Amino acid sequence: MAKKRANGEGSIRKRSSGIWEGRVTIDGVAKSIYGKTQADVRLKLTEIRNDLDNDDYIDPSNTTVKEWLELWQDEYLEDVKQSTADRYKSCIRIHIIPALGETRLMDLRSSMIQKFLNSCKKVNGLSEKSVKNIRLVLHKALEKAVEDEQIKKNPCDKAKVPSYDEPPKEMRPLKDNEVPMFLQAIKGNQFEALFYVALFTGMRESELIGLTWDCIDFQHNTVHIYRQLRKTRGKNGKYVFTSLKNKQARTFSPPKNVMDMLKKVKIRQTEYRLKAGTSWLNTDDLVFTNDLGKHIATFTLYKYFKEIVTKIGLPGMRFHDLRHGYATLALQNGVDVKTVSNNLGHSTTAFTMDKYGHVTETMMKDSADKMQRFIESL
After folding, report:
1. Domain 179-368 in this protein, CATH class
2. CATH number, domain 65-147, options 1.20.1070.10, 1.10.150.130, 3.90.1150.10, 3.40.50.1580
3. pTM, entire model
4. Tens digits of per-residue pLDDT, 115-126?
5. 33 contacts 22 by C-beta, under 8 angstroms
């Protein structure tokens, strides 16, 4: 009667093809381990024995990176915002699968991922932000593979985003003397009210085009933000309501002039609705719409905004810089950081202070100068 091999016991032989094969017994089942040299196989067998001794063994699988990523995006992204899920799937389809898809999940190594990330920059010319997003998606997917015991450790842990020489895009908020120029330039524009509210509340573009009248409380002079309107990815992408960036609703009190501007919008919208009659399309009760009540497209908003800032000599300014402008103006005019952070919808005050450190540093210096003048007056 043949002797049953012990768990982890194995043998090595060279096959006729020249490849070395190691046979190992796992829970009474014989498995084959392959390598180019006898030393490679011996090392793999040693690793398996050590893993078995530590109760840390994971059975090798033929699952490819492509198969795992497709499973991950279908099964593990249910709790992620639709816009985020779409971005992850696009990243997987366009970048990760073409480069690493055919590799067995168990064979994926940090060096392979590093080479891939480097090529994203050097060969494909992707921006630093894009490469960071690619690594983020791959790391998340492989982390779940570790949790599901598909692999022992995440090979993406040690793979780094290659360094970029170009500095990140700087924010370009309106300076004090440029604010009147901007306000004069938007007068009479069909998006005047939206631009005005953006500058003096710091709301994001997606929050503004998704703002509905149930968010506006004229009695208590507050605005409540709990969702945003975003366009899904793809050629035929549609606008859908999604949760906020950090999934935290917020309520804030804008300046009186902002609330007065919103009252004017409501009156004008009533006029548009009466004029449009049965053609009125504002079923979501949006605050900012076109003449027929349809939501505003981001491309259209971008077009009109660029015309305005180019006209006043600021062609490089982005719509998002209105948000930065609000934060800078608020902090410079004495609004405390905690309030500004809440109004912007930041997750923490620390993030706000880090983001607008140049402003808070000036405020701290001014505060020190004021205290010094007080001490000298004693």
Report:
1. mainly alpha
2. 1.10.150.130
3. 0.62
4. 999 999 988 888
5. yes
